[in-house]
Amino acid sequence: MARREELSRFLKSVRARLNPEDMGLPAGGRRRVAGLRREEVALLSGMSVTWYTWFEQGREVKPSAPMLERLCKALKLSQEEREYLFALAQHRPPPLALAPDEMIRPAAQQMLDSLNLPAVIITEYWAVIGWNDIVTRIFRDYASYSESDRNLFKILVLGDAYREDRQTYRDMVRRLTARLKWDYSRAANAEFFEGLIAEMSEKSEMFREFWALPDVVAHFEGVHSLDAEGVGPIAFHHTSYALEEVPGQRLVIYTPNDTESAKKLKKLVK
């Protein structure tokens, strides 16, 4: 089945399941088929009837992202259905939702707890929403922070944990700032990042220096060391992975970067 045929089928089936009264529309007398009429969908989504009809028929029309977002809202699509519509219509994922999902799924927390490695889950806005006990013992106790202060970017850049070696700290801040630029460019809620950028520019001279550079990176990855109580320095290589079920959330896993670090970590997680 061609994509346009599937797009047409999908829109018709979604339209058919909606009740006019639930959408604040009059029943309009006897209807030949269940659900909304095309002109009602067009009205609810702020489109012309002709344009929506052509789109549903699978003709060569090119909707913008805002038009598709209005259509998603009008048709009351779920997050999965929204992504499906964007994939069919634009052959790419939709922009990240304006209201980020800042609740960790129970299955995700269970996965964190089962790992023998430090791991956290953060949102696209760098808020730490999940962590395991190993993180608490080795890095920091996020439960001791208020929710508004659990921003990983600010904790890493403004904290003292990694400042002992100035060059290592500079490298980390430069890498993190380059990644923050990437997230800023993609986020639906630019206002949050603009506030964060203003705050960091005021509080960190190093951040101001690196924000002015053209560096941009799309991957949250790097190596850093810390002194773990009882065993000494451990070098960690951290990488991040998108969580398929929740767009915008990322799993960050810290793995030992060498054999000696692996031995030290093993002593701590027994």
Question: Describe it for me?
Answer:
The protein has helices at 3-16, 38-45, 49-56, 65-74, 79-90, 106-114, 133-138, 152-158, 166-186, 190-203, 205-211, 259-268, and strands at 119-122, 128-131, 221-228, 232-242, 250-256. It is an alpha+beta fold and 270 residues long. The protein has two domains: 3-90, lambda repressor-like DNA-binding domains (434 Repressor (Amino-terminal Domain), Orthogonal Bundle); 106-268, 2-Layer Sandwich (Beta-Lactamase). It has a five-stranded antiparallel β-sheet with strand order 2-1-5-4-3. Helix 2 packs across helix 3 (49-56), helix 9 crosses helix 11 and helix 10 packs across helix 11. The model has no long low-confidence stretch (mean pLDDT 88).
Overall shape = elongated
- Unreliably modeled segments: none
What proportion of the residues is helical, as a percent range?
Answer: 40-55%
| CATH topology (level 3) name of the largest domain | Beta-Lactamase
Helices and strands, in N-to-C order? HHHHHHEEHHHHHEEEH
What class, by secondary structure content? Answer: alpha+beta
Q: What's the number of extended β-strand segments?
A: 5
Biggest sheet, open or closed, and with what strands and sense? 5 strands, antiparallel
Give the count of helical stretches. Answer: 12
**Assembly type:** single chain
